[in-house]
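Section 3.1: Structural characterization of target chains.
Under the original work plan, the team committed to producing a structural model for every single-chain target entering the pipeline before any wet-lab resources were allocated. The record below documents one such target. The sequence was received from the expression subgroup and is listed exactly as submitted; it comprises 152 residues.
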Amino acid sequence: MLARRSAVALSSQWRPGIALALFAFAAGSLLEPSRALAQYAPLLLGKSPARSTGVRRADVLTDGRAAADGAPWKTRLTAQFDDAGSFVEYDLGSVDSVHAAWLQGDNNDTYRVEGSIDGRSFSPLWDAPPVPQPGLQARSTRSLTGEARYVR
């Protein structure tokens, strides 16, 4: 989810079958997406991807729901990225500042968040690193800087 003054993108950089749920917010708690959703107006909530390649169930990335941390990565709450070239791209409609992101993904994978002004040239905004706990695990950052209209 994106909230005003933030933007997030995602692409896969790992093996087939990766699962992911994505949220992003302006200021506030990034560790509790349900609470943050109640406090902020997310930019991606319910938004359909502008483009998607190699991703099954991309619609769940913006439905406002996330699995419990530690849950298996392959569930009805997660999208699955087929390979390293897979991505989901959103058009925010206008350029917005990028400040914070929250995502939930398989623990042993890296997730790249990218942004673009023109939809052609994307730059990394954040690499969410692997974490030691098993299963789906949340990662967040409040230190993003940049601007984007398109995110993937």
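The CA atoms of residues 45 and 136 lie 21 Å apart.
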